[in-house]
Amino acid sequence: MLESEQKQPQTAEVTQEEQKRKKKKRIIIVVTVLLVIVAAAVIYFLTRPKGMTEGNYKQIAEEMESEVQEGYFETYMNTEWTFPDGASETTDAILGNSPNNRKPIRCEVKLADTEEVIFKTDVIPVGAEIPPFKLDKDLDAGTYEAVCETYLLNEEEDGTYSDYSNAGFSLTITVEN
């Protein structure tokens, strides 16, 4: 009986050691799998394109050429406008309604600090760009921070337009003299 009693504790010890080894193996496998997943995620986020690059600008432009969804709109404009003086036409301002839009737009330019309207457009049809323009207010020489509030328009049955949705775009206006 002594031999059989001695073998039982050894068997119990062996099974406990085996269980410990199996548990360690499971932990090692789980940790390894998690490390592989984390490494793959890090590699993905470090190597994916961030915004527009030389390599993807054509793809982004093609995607932008598709028709704009209802309630959304595109406008094309630059964000730095220059005027030789407060009463002259701009030398470089671009403001237009994308040909991808479904509706006409109108714009109001307001000084950022006072919200004073210094320029308003008439209705800009889809695909049209306004020609060089003068501000509606004669500004003194200087640099002004402004907001171009752009309104998407609905055409009413009587031929008039009502605002449908809008978005504001920051811009800098420089009056040279």
Write the topology of this structure.
Blueprint: H1 2-47, H2 57-65, E1 75-77, E2 80-83, E3 95-97, E4 105-111, E5 117-120, E6 142-155, E7 161-175
Parallel strand pairs: 2-7
Antiparallel strand pairs: 1-3, 4-5, 4-6, 6-7
Question: How would you characterize this protein structure?
Answer:
The mean pLDDT is 83. The longest helix has 46 residues. The chain has a domain of 106 residues: Immunoglobulin-like (Sandwich), CATH 2.60.40.2550. By secondary structure, it is an alpha+beta fold. The chain is built from two helices and seven strands, in the order ααβββββββ. A five-stranded mixed beta sheet has the order 2-7-6-4-5, with no helix packed on it. A two-stranded antiparallel ribbon has the order 1-3.
Number of helices: 2
Helix residue percentage: 25-40%
Broad CATH class of the domain at 70-175: Mainly Beta
Rg, Å, rounded = 33 Å
Quaternary status of these chains?
single chain
Tell me the CATH topology of the domain at 70-175.
Answer: Immunoglobulin-like
How much is the average pLDDT?
Answer: 83
**What is the CATH architecture term of the domain at 70-175?**
Sandwich
- Briefly note the structural class of the backbone: alpha+beta
What percentage of amino acids are in beta strands? 25-35%
Order of strands across the widest beta sheet? 2-7-6-4-5
Low confidence ranges? none
Question: Main beta sheet, described?
Answer: 5 strands, mixed
What is the general shape? elongated
